[in-house]
């Protein structure tokens, strides 16, 4: 079995920088030894990582790999072949940028996960929600307003409609039956959907509680799209574990999140990308106006979350061809937050969100060897991530090299 030894490396363990010149030994897919003093190992595949940082693989906790079209109304009519090939490309590119795990927030399914497990293509670990649950006229209802339909329901590329407690229970059970890692619900208005204003509170408390109960029966949790203070506070009070986006959060609702031990996953890069490129990708001016509203509140939401002590994850929520902007999230957050706090969000905090905090997102003995080697020091300079993976010198998942190291 291959043994890999990284020597002379700066080690960011997912929490702190623990040495400037250490040694990490990988064996059997796990981290076998961490020596902050360095030296000691000469057998195996030895990589001299002087001037580089060894750290846990990055985790993006909010992606939509099936979003072939940035316009989600049009995405519903895109062929399954197009969506699947797009997902393959998105996941392979994310891996080369250093992302070793993705949490899909609506769309990805068991078929895609099975293809990944069978190594039909190479990509990060995938934690998928199946179809997101939406009420009629909610954020997951991408039917054109005014179009009269038969009333026989709606299931799109990334979401499905479930109205009433019984339908929500059934829809949640169906996603979990198909292997979903968690359940996604739409709990407030959104920008991409045509019918609902941002301020709209969605799903009744009984419907949200039903989704939470069904997820808990499977030992998992609910993630909720929610922008406004009211939507955020009622979700965490009802047991929702992660709030997605949260741009309009205020001090009171942030305190509610912290008190309930919940997480928030901001996704700021998608707003910048959509404002720059959305019109070219079929977004109407009405939808772009909604994007401008949430984008304007994004940086302030980071300050509020930080000051409230909320555990904040790292997500991007990019659509269509805009996945190339994935690493812009680092630079946007750096306008408010310290680099090391952003790295914690993308590693150890996101691993906790995935319920894998003991094994992923850390460099410690016994943890799974999902690792990246980065040129430079990202704990002080996040620009190392802006070159679309050029500064990611190697990538490992469970000790297996996915991006080979090449000396320069």
UniProtKB/TrEMBL annotation:
One Pfam family matching this protein: Amidohydro_1
InterPro entries cross-referenced by the UniProt entry: Amidohydro-rel, Metal-dep_hydrolase_composite, Metal_Hydrolase, Metallo-dep_Hydrolase, OTAase-like
SUPFAM superfamilies per record: Composite domain of metallo-dependent hydrolases, Metallo-dependent hydrolases
Superkingdom classification of source: Bacteria
Gene3D superfamilies: Metal-dependent hydrolases (3.20.20.140), Urease, subunit C, domain 1 (2.30.40.10)
Domain Amidohydrolase-related, residue spans: 53-400
Protein name per its UniProtKB record: Amidohydrolase family protein
């Amino acid at each position: 079995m291959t043994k890999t030894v990284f020597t002379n490396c700066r080690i960011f363990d997912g929490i702190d920088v623990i040495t400037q010149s250490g040694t990490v030994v990988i064996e059997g897919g796990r981290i076998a030894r961490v020596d902050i003093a360095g030296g000691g190992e000469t057998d195996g595949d030895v990589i001299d990582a002087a001037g580089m940082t060894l750290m846990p693989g990055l985790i993006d906790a909010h992606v939509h790999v099936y979003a072939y079209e940035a316009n989600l109304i049009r995405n519903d009519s895109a062929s399954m072949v197009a969506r699947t090939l797009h997902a393959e490309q998105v996941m392979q590119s994310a891996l080369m940028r250093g992302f070793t795990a993705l949490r899909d927030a609506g769309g990805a399914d068991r078929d895609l996960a099975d293809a990944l497990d069978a190594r039909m293509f190479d990509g990060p670990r995938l934690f998928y929600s199946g179809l997101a649950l939406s009420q009629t006229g909610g954020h997951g209802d991408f039917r054109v307003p005014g179009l009269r339909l038969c009333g026989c329901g709606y299931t799109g590329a990334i979401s499905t409609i479930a109205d009433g407690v019984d339908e929500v229970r059934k829809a949640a059970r169906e996603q979990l039956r198909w292997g979903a890692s968690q359940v996604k619900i739409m709990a407030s208005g959104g920008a991409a959907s045509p019918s609902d204003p941002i301020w709209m509170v969605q799903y009744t408390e009984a419907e949200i509680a039903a989704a939470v109960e069904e997820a808990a029966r499977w030992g998992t949790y609910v993630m909720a799209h929610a922008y406004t203070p009211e939507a955020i506070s009622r979700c965490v009070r009802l047991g929702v574990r992660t709030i997605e986006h949260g741009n309009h959060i205020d001090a009171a609702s942030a305190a509610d999140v912290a008190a309930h031990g919940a997480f928030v996953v901001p996704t700021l890069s998608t707003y910048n990308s959509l404002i720059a490129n959305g019109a070219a990708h079929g977004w109407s001016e009405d939808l772009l106006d909604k994007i401008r509203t949430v984008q304007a509140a994004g940086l302030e939401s980071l300050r509020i979350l930080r000051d409230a002590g909320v555990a904040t994850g790292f997500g991007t929520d990019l659509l269509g061809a805009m996945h190339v902007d994935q690493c812009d999230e680092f630079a946007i957050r750096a306008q408010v937050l310290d680099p090391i706090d952003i790295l914690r969000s993308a590693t150890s905090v996101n691993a906790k969100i995935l319920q894998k905090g003991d094994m992923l997102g850390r460099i410690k003995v016994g943890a799974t060897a999902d690792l990246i080697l980065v040129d430079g020091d990202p704990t002080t300079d996040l620009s190392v991530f802006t070159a679309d993976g050029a500064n990611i010198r190697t990538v490992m998942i469970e000790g297996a090299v996915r991006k080979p190291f090449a000396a320069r």
